[in-house]
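User: Hi! I'm working on a homework problem where we have to compare a predicted structure to a textbook description. Could you give me the structure for the chain below?
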Amino acid sequence: MIRLLVSILITAILILVLFSQISFGDLYALFFHLDPWWALSGCLGYVLSLLFRALRIRWLVHSKDLSLSQFARLSVLHNFSLMILPSKLGELAYPYLLNRMCGITLTEGLASLITARIYDFFITFMILLISAMGFPEILKINVWVAGMIAVSCISVTFLTLFHMSRLSRWVSAVFEKLSNRVRLKRRNPFPWIREKTSHISADFDAIHSRRGYVPVTLLTTLSWLMAFWMFYAFMRGFGISISFLNVTFGSSVALFVNALPISGLGNWGILEAGWAAGFLIVGLSKEKAIATGFGVHILIFIITGLFAVLCWTTWKQQSPSPAAETTADR
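Assistant: Happy to help. Predicted structure tokens:
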């Protein structure tokens, strides 16, 4: 309860600070002049982004061969959870929904989530780096420095992917030692944690054995390119004349700010602050940078909410889902 109140407080403060720099009239003007064709193009980009994410999940989930529609519903509901739950708890909705909707174990869901986030960080960082080269007079990044950073990022990413199972086994061994040495009067949580980390290690090994580095990288790249197209289409729909490169850089900054471990309510306020910072760098006025941040976020929230209701309804109307994992299972 305290965490929820803190999240609401942080979000309220950020929104109030941002709205102190603009008026509701600025936001109203954006929606009043919204071009429906550009908005429709942005919606198409959103759908394609979710489709590529669903295809990526099929590569990362190894225990069952499920339909694309199931993974598409999962992507929508996970995305919506990220927008409404506090303190980044929306991430935990992914393994939970994967378990409830598809019968996948929680540990496999967590392993696939961690793997997906590593790919997301790698691709978005590379896109940010490439787009940043379009502003050499501001960011002072030359080609050689950018190349060295890119090589380092690629190396770190794939080393992390290759050694996730080993890291999980090491964590499991640590908790095994703790469970043997620490004697608690009440229930000892260390054996349970050791067991779960051991299962996660096995799931990382299974993901690694599929050798899906190229298709997962490609699908992640396509998903993010469609997301950046969505941002661009919505900006053009709001009447902002701006290049795709500028939108890519500005929204990439917003995404990295949104990834910070700040306990807000969903990503409200945090995303807008990062959006304002990124688009101030590319030359938008303060009022347009803040207003478009709220405008784009509201459009995405409406679209995601509608799709989430549709996905939840169709899931409930279908035959009962596979038995969810019990506490005695993995």
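For your comparison, note the following. The two ends are 28 Å apart (CA to CA). Residues 122 and 153 are 7 Å apart (CA to CA). Good luck with the assignment!
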